[in-house]
Write a structure and sequence with these properties.
Order of helices and strands: EHEHEHEEH
Strand content: 15-25%
CATH class: Alpha Beta
Largest sheet: 5 strands, parallel
Number of domains: 1
Number of strands: 5
CATH superfamily: Response regulator
CATH topology: Rossmann fold
Structural class: alpha/beta
Oligomer: single chain
Radius of gyration: 14 Å
Shape: globular
Helix content: 25-40%
Distance between the termini: 23 Å
Length: 137
């Protein structure tokens, strides 16, 4: 299915979150900010999506989730394989220790205010060459 014309130029975020209600809430926040979201429930699914979707500009990942790796490990793999993709790691249970976050990645503790989530994603994508995160009318 092709996206509607109005979303073609919107930034695409890959969200990795295993809790359906949290994921739904964050998707609503980001779509309201004119950010298109591709969803994955764990890092394994997200890794496959990232390989198939060159339009992904940033990854928003939770730390604690099922699968073969946690959000910190996934963030480091994203940074190694896709250095142009912004990385934002979030958690309500744990914070990053030494070496957990890759270079130029950010971390936020849950709960996160909607404006703070959008601002953090704008920050991690600031250096991405595919355009800006300015909302379109």
């Amino acid at each position: 299915m092709k996206p509607h014309r109005r979303i073609v130029n919107q930034p695409v975020i890959l969200m990795v979150e295993d809790e359906p209600l949290v994921r739904l809430t964050q998707v609503d926040i980001l779509r309201e900010a004119k950010i298109w979201v591709v969803e994955a429930q764990d890092a394994d699914e997200a890794f496959e999506l990232l390989k198939r979707r060159p339009d992904i500009r940033a990854v928003l990942t939770d730390v604690n989730m099922p699968g073969s790796m946690d959000g910190f490990e996934f963030a480091r793999l994203v940074r190694q394989g896709w250095p142009e993709v912004g990385v934002l790691v979030i958690s309500g249970k744990t914070g990053p220790g030494p070496g957990d976050l890759p270079p130029n990645a950010d971390f936020l503790h849950k709960p996160i205010l909607p404006d703070d989530l959008v601002a953090a994603l704008r920050k991690v994508m600031a250096g991405h060459p595919q355009g800006s995160l300015t909302p379109e009318g």
